[in-house]
Amino acid sequence: MRTGALEDAPELVSGSGLDGFELITTPRALAQAPLELARQASAVHEVQRGPVDQVAGSLVDSVRGSAIVALGGGRVIDTAKAIAAVKGARVAAIPTTLSGAEITAIHRLPEGHRASRLVRPVLAVCDPEWMTTLPEPELRASAMNALAHGADSLSTPLSNPVATMAALRGAELIAKALDQATPKRDVVALTAGAVLSAWALDSALFGLHHVVCQTLVRALSIPHAETNAAMLPRTMEAMVERAPAAMKALAAALGTSVAELGARIEGLGGGPWRLRELGAEEGGVDAAVEAMLARPELAMTPDPPGADELRELVWAAW
């Protein structure tokens, strides 16, 4: 991870043994990337809007090679990983947001396909200037998505000392960077915080927060980062009694008290973000709650919530 890494991406990809790669990207990302990267690609595939499993399912038969470069945000990188899992391909990731997908082996599979393994990119080209170009509201939402990775990992059965250290340091870096005025913001620290948080998630996995947000995004067709920003204050408040030591440590890393944890997260995210303002329809809430209850990952939460509490969490962010 370093400033200027994007310009070196063609050389870095080639040096990683990914010659003949196929590029998976979006028009916006491609327009800002080094021209040499597209010239090196044996094929370029555009990622359409939609859930990762559906998008990957529509592209999987078009990808022929054993090397893929994903250039874009988390949805683009997860799509590349999904296809690579089916094809047995290797992936390099060049992220344009703070999604953390570039270093995790967490993703869906293409619709209608199975795989024997999940995929973690063999190369991540992380350029802080490139990863923090979103407008301020969207950047803060993306940062809350990143913060949620580490925060949710703190209290799973797989939590461990190294992942906890990464999550708490990541939270501290994200908070300090977001507290700075935009022109003076330390984007290297912000990006490092996001990467550490993603590493923690990859190690200890997730529980309540990700179950809620992933389900809401799919069930209500609302944007991913902003949904995380809306829900994170509420889900972390719901974890205070379930994992008091972990939430006390998280609050300290964010420079606040447990009593002010939700408010601190909401402020860092530029909130309040409201689900109704993201396009959520009230009629889909009950079905979303039922889908949350059906997720096996909910059991990764101490004292898993029932339907009533899950519904209350959603309405609290409405």
What does this structure look like?
This protein is an alpha/beta fold and 318 residues long. It is 52% helix and 7% strand. Strands 2-1-3-4-5 form a five-stranded parallel sheet, sandwiched between helices. The chain is globular. It starts with 8 loop residues before the first helix and ends with a helix.
Secondary structure: number of strands: 5
> Strands across the major sheet, in which order?
2-1-3-4-5
What letter string, H or E per element, gives the SSE order?
HEHHEHEHEEHHHHHHHHHH
| Gyration radius over CA | 19 Å
CA-based shape: globular
What kind of sheet is the major sheet? Answer: 5 strands, parallel
| Cα separation of the termini | 37 Å
Task: Note poorly predicted spans.
Answer: none
Mean pLDDT: 95
Strand content: 5-15%
Number of helices: 15
Helix content: 40-55%
Q: What's this model, at a glance?
A:
The protein is of the alpha/beta class.
Question: Can you tag this structure with a few keywords?
Answer:
318 residues; alpha/beta; 5 strands; 52% helix; globular
SSE inventory with pairings:
Layout: H1 9-15, E1 22-25, H2 27-32, H3 35-40, E2 43-46, H4 52-59, E3 67-72, H5 74-87, E4 90-95, E5 123-124, H6 128-131, H7 136-153, H8 161-179, H9 187-204, H10 208-220, H11 224-239, H12 244-253, H13 261-268, H14 285-293, H15 307-316
Parallel strand pairs: 1-2, 1-3, 3-4, 4-5
Helix pairs in contact: 4-5, 7-8, 7-9, 7-11, 8-9, 8-12, 10-11, 10-14, 11-13, 14-15
